[in-house]
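As a warm-up, study this chain.
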Amino acid sequence: MPKNKGGGGGGGKAKGGKDKSADSGSGETKKKEAKGGTAVKIENRALGTAKTNNPRLTAEERFFIVKTFYKTDNKSETCRRFQEKFNRTVKRDTVGRLVQRFESTGSCEDLPRPGRPKSVCTFEKTQIIRAAFAENPQKSTRQASQEFGISQRSIVRMLHDVKRQ
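Now compare it with the structure written out below.
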């Protein structure tokens, strides 16, 4: 078995067959010489570079996609023009789904999401409760619950949050 040339242990394989040099943290793709002299491509996935994080499309971007698709009647051309204008990419499937949603609902906006509704403990309601108890500190949470149409537990939760501030 041939010995390693070039010194003690900086560039060889780590335990388990993984290349130590791929863990540099730079997020770059590197080339490494394999046994037969061929270059092997090694990607560093430590920073999660495999996926990109695209933010949601704005209303202006959605409108542009639908309008451009109806002008060109071509998803690929719509994607190209979108990239020219907004300097970000959009997939052909996204264009298709947006156009389909526009045709079925007449709008480019998202449909309401299922699930638990928003909490009743909004900033405005908390301010109202705070003012009511500042005016009359002897008021009971049961009275406030009936007066404001908010559950007693929510009133207690709002008052508890007020104490922390």
